[in-house]
Amino acid sequence: MSNRTFTMVKPDATSKGYTGAILQQITDAGFTIKAMKWIHLSEKQAGAFYAVHKERPFYGELVAFMSSGPIVAAILEKENAVADFRTLIGATNPAQAAEGTIRKKFASSIGENAVHGSDSDENAAIEGSFFFSGLEIF
Ligand code: ADP
Ligand code: MG
């Protein structure tokens, strides 16, 4: 069981003014913010973050989207963080996401789906250290 995960509020959600409401839902669900930054990724940086998806057909679209505007990146803490956060955000495709989940409420499509959530403890650690140094985690 992990106690940390990594998230991003994606460019679709930041541009629509959903950042505050999404962060509120995250903290209301019991997650504590350990690190946070507002950042606009370059294409190269977004491509590196999503390198694991390089062979998938949507990779180019995903990299263009994730570098299209600012995001909020954060490390979150809670008991069972990875699994509980995936439950909170809902399915990748908002059309299939459960009622009340962040993607159901704020996402518009399978690509522009409002938030990222790590899929394992190992990836949570890798993704968190992509954005944050030890000096930025509290
Ligand atoms: P998740 O974010 O739920 O873990 P994946 O890891 O499978 O989903 O995919 C990473 C991201 O790539 C998704 O959140 C979404 O932004 C994008 N994506 C996934 N599948 C598609 C698709 N079929 N078409 C366009 N974009 C997609
Ligand atoms: Mg994923």
- Portion of residues in helices? 25-40%
Q: What series of H and E elements makes up the topology?
A: EHHEHHEHHEH
The main pleated sheet reads as: 4 strands, antiparallel
- The separation of the N and C termini measures 21 Å
Q: What is the total domain count?
A: 1
Gyration radius from CA atoms, angstroms: 14 Å
In percent terms, what proportion of residues is strand? 15-25%
How do the strands line up in the largest sheet? 2-3-1-4
SSE class: alpha+beta
CATH fold field value: Alpha-Beta Plaits
Secondary structure: number of strands: 4
Q: What small ligands are held by the chains?
A: adenosine-5'-diphosphate, magnesium ion
Task: Summarize model confidence as the mean pLDDT.
Answer: 98
In CATH, the architecture is: 2-Layer Sandwich
How many distinct helices? 7
Shape label: globular
Low-confidence stretches: none
Can you walk through the features of this model?
The protein is an alpha+beta fold and 138 residues long. It is built from seven helices and four strands. It has one domain: Alpha-Beta Plaits (2-Layer Sandwich), CATH 3.30.70. Helix content is 40%, strand content 17%. The protein has a four-stranded antiparallel β-sheet. Helix 3 crosses helix 4. The longest helix has 11 residues. The two termini are 21 Å apart. The mean pLDDT is 98. The structure holds adenosine-5'-diphosphate and magnesium ion. Adenosine-5'-diphosphate (ADP) binds next to helix 4.
Supply database-style keywords.
4-stranded antiparallel β-sheet; 138 residues; single chain; binds adenosine-5'-diphosphate; Alpha-Beta Plaits; binds magnesium ion; alpha+beta
